[in-house]
Specification:
With about 230 residues, the chain is an alpha/beta fold. About 40% of the residues lie in helices and about 15% in strands. It contains 7 helices and 7 strands.
Length: about 230
């Protein structure tokens, strides 16, 4: 498996307060990359800021006129990727962009040593940490359910940082439009006999006042998604 290019997909919705600060950290990552930003129908000044940044930085900007959901934005970005691997990176700085390099280097070394392509690499927020809050409890349950249904061994199924071979897209069929894309893609990888290796990453949780968008009902939708993937 070649490691010539990494596709970084950044779905964005109403992040005018942070994109000018957060995106350059991704643009400046020292690795072979293409960046695809999908503006998912933002109603604030996000699109205008992205257009201004595009004059300085080299990236592909895709604009969805109406908000369709994170999953829909990611699927739109996947249509245009050229990289050997792809990863999703939010623009809110909950995740440290430098951990993308850590995942990329780990993947290169693992694939070279094991001569395999059917492996994905997840950045786990909880591999070495065990914070206790409502979102962590929900994530623990969803991860447990994923492991139970699909014979996995994960500590953080809901992580945004999933480094996945582009070739895997030949076997998985993503339908989700919102946050349930996370369990959907994990379930389909495991059903297609992909191994998932986890690497500990940094995480800086933000709250709803800072713009966090996932809701409690998304946890219920994730459960339904996992059950659908197992039995349908």
């Amino acid at each position: 498996m070649s490691f010539n290019l990494l596709s970084i997909i950044i779905p964005i919705y109403n992040e005018e307060k942070i994109v000018a600060e957060s995106l350059p950290l991704i643009f400046d990552l020292n690795l072979p990359k293409e960046i695809i930003i999908v503006n998912d129908g933002s109603t604030d000044q996000t699109l205008e800021i992205l257009m201004a940044l595009n004059k300085k930085y080299n990236y592909t900007l895709l604009n969805q006129v109406t908000n369709q959901g994170k999953g829909a934005a990611i699927k739109r970005g996947l249509e245009d990727i050229k990289g050997d691997y792809f990863i999703i990176c939010d623009a809110d700085l909950e995740y440290d962009p430098n951990d993308i390099i850590k995942l990329w280097e780990t993947a290169k070394n693992y694939v070279a040593a094991n001569d395999t392509e059917e492996v994905a690499f997840y950045g786990s927020r909880f591999l070495n940490k065990h914070p206790k809050n409502f979102h962590t409890l929900v994530n623990w349950f969803l991860t447990y359910l994923t492991n139970l249904l699909f014979n996995g061994n994960l500590s953080d199924m809901e992580t945004c940082f999933k480094l996945i071979p582009k070739k895997a897209l030949e076997k998985i069929n993503l339908k989700s439009k919102r946050f349930e894309l996370e369990p959907e893609i994990t379930a389909q990888l495991l059903k297609n006999n992909y191994k998932i290796k986890e690497i500990a990453i940094n995480y800086n949780k933000r709250g709803y006042k800072e713009g966090k968008k996932i809701k409690a009902r998304d946890g219920l939708i994730a459960i339904k998604t996992l059950i659908r993937e197992k039995f349908c």
